[in-house]
From TrEMBL:
Residues 68-82 have a biased composition (Basic and acidic residues). Residues 66-88 are annotated as: Disordered. This is AbrB family transcriptional regulator. Pfam families: MazE_antitoxin. Residues 9-40 form the SpoVT-AbrB domain. InterPro entries: SpoVT-AbrB_dom, SpoVT-AbrB_sf. GO terms for molecular function: DNA binding. The lineage of its organism: Bacteria, Pseudomonadati, Pseudomonadota, Alphaproteobacteria, Sphingomonadales.
Length: 88
């Protein structure tokens, strides 16, 4: 893991802004993708590297990942004879 940096959140108009250290090498106006995680942490990367990040995830799942299936795909029968424009 690389160096750790502190960042400060401040109010900017009706939004919150995150002030990042210059040492991170980001440029003014550069776009980043910010992803919140369930544990309260965040990941972010440069928008122009989004494809590279996505492709880096390929093959990173463990061998047994979803070995037992998703267990959430069972669905009841549907009535396809109904007009799709009618309210349910």
């Amino acid at each position: 893991m690389g160096e750790k940096y502190k960042a400060k959140i401040f109010k900017s108009g009706n939004s919150l802004a995150l002030r990042l250290p210059k040492a991170l090498g980001l440029e003014e106006g550069e776009e980043v993708t910010l992803v919140p995680h369930d544990d309260g942490s965040f990941s972010f990367w440069r928008q122009d590297r989004a494809r590279e990040v996505l492709m880096g995830l390929y093959g990173s799942m463990s061998t047994g990942f979803m070995a037992d299936g998703r267990d959430d795909t069972a669905q009841g029968e549907r009535d396809w004879s109904r007009d799709a424009t009618q309210a349910a």
